[in-house]
Design brief:
- This protein has 606 residues and is an alpha/beta fold.
- The two termini are 35 Å apart.
- An 8-stranded mixed sheet has the order 7-8-12-11-10-9-13-14. A 4-stranded parallel sheet has the order 2-1-3-4, with helices on both faces. A two-stranded antiparallel sheet has the order 5-6.
- The longest helix is centred in the first third of the chain and has 30 residues.
- It folds into 2 domains: 358 residues, no CATH class; 152 residues, IlvD/EDD C-terminal domain-like (Glucose Oxidase, domain 1, 3-Layer(bba) Sandwich).
- 38% of the residues lie in helices and 13% in strands.
- It is built from 24 helices and 14 strands.
- Helix 9 runs antiparallel to helix 10 and helix 11 crosses helix 14.
- This is Phosphogluconate dehydratase.
- Pathway: Carbohydrate metabolism; Entner-Doudoroff pathway.
- Its EC number is 4.2.1.12.
- One of its GO terms (cellular component) is cytosol.
Amino acid sequence: MTLHPIIAAVTDRIIERSRPGRTAYLDLIERERASGFDRPKLGCANLAHAYAGTDEQRDRMKDGRAMNIGIVTAYNDMLSAHATYYRYPEQMKVWALEAGATAQVAGGVPAMCDGVTQGYQGMELSLFSRDTIALATAIALSHRTFEGAALLGICDKIVPGLLMGALRFGHLPMVMVPGGPMRTGIPNKEKAAVRERYAEGKATREELLDSEIAAYHGKGTCTFYGTANSNQMMMEAMGLHIPGAAFANPGTKLRQELTRAAVQRLPQIGWGTDDYRPIGHCVDERAIVNAAIALLATGGSTNHLIHLPAIARSAGIVIDWEDFDRLSKVVPLLTRVYPNGSADVNAFEDAGGPPFVLRELSRGGLIHDDILTIAEGGFAQYGRKPDIEGDALVWRDLPAEPGDDGIVRTVENPFSPEGGFRILQGNLGRACIKTSAVDPDRWVIEAPARVFSTQQDVQDAFKAGELDRDVVVVVRFQGPQANGMPELHKLTPPLGVLQNRGFRVALVTDGRMSGASGKVPAAIHLSPEGFAGGAVAKLRDGDVVRLDAEAGTLEALVDAAEWEARPYAQTPPMADGTGRELFRMMNQAADEAERGASAMLAAAGL
């Protein structure tokens, strides 16, 4: 199928815009590649230090001919998604030996959970944890004793951070190794309903806790289609997983064999083979466009409107929100997964999952199916379903129709002809909105503003009944330079309650919303942020604000002369405690959301 002309045009625009940075990046990894095998060139004392921690692999490592795989792991047992990685390294070492290679844990990276820190001070470290993970990945790989790498991470900032660091070692072949989602707990709608009843004072704290534990109950990622599971969809579309690895549950034979295949694929695509596939070549402009398309086609997390530009920059590529906006107009919405529907990712997987979506996008000429992937068989393999036959891992063709067309659709019968993302622009700046979960009659909201500087102030006003009206809730000073751009997920239940009561409600913020946000229209990632002189700092209570997702506008309906002359509100002081003061250098250096909100990349000049 011929590629859709708009997708081709967006890709060409990205290639042209990225030419200087991409050329410099490819030159970098070619210089790294030209240095050849570093390990045999290291001094004997250096090598002895590198081998001292191993016994059974040392003889094979000494001859320097077999690939040594560096494992970078985000394991910790406080997070359900990353607790699955506990025994992975010891298993991976055995599987590497089976393939004639060796493997070592190169290093660990932090993995924090937004679900734990939502609404609390730790959330202000969340976005900057991505840069920290990238730096930790670079440290892990800096020993130059590895010819390939396996990256173990799955959740929100971890996958982007791993990639951002790994791409600076783009001459190495690498594979992303997911851990899979936990089994299904209580239905997501039931969980959301209890949250809203608690927000109204109609459910007790004990009832809420029991509900949450019933939803988040075991090892694996959360089962809603938030940032973590959007990560996995994007990795499939970029060809960085073993095909179909995204949503196999932990503890299954299928999950084990997919991980074994990931380890054993690396020696096959190493630089000593005839099929060298370094990650810096796999992640090109087309792969970045594929990630954006997969995100739009599945109604994925808005957080990736920040993460994908940051990943791209690490590979010398520049993508902006206009690219997302143009792609969204031609990429159909093919899934309904919570919060954009009632199904969870396990039901999505059963109905066809990522392989069905990618096959349909390819069949419709809506994705680049000629990218360089880590998989034997190329991109077409990502449109097939993995399975176990006897003891062997096999891939099977999917049926023409989905297992449940209330969850997944064909390109001829999408849920929507558009992907559900729009840019909003006006005298308040430039923001983005996810429309795929918002009822079309809520795409235009015009109402008086109520302006806040913290989400706790919003919750207090809600409890006091001060928001029981048509209202645009404005939460400013929540950008990366102000306080690290925390998610404002705690606002979802009270704003949902107000909407359920029949009020016309919207949110405007220079902060982020969770990948689990949904039905309330929200203009997010507003740039420039209020702390850095953005116009949102001019807003006052009572100003009428118009959010129009149809026209793509976001305006304070204030007389132009008055607006121009109006002073900016005083910025709140930066808070200390919970380690926030240690990240002050990142606040000061961070660039705007559309470029990825990264202090590290800004400081590196990337």
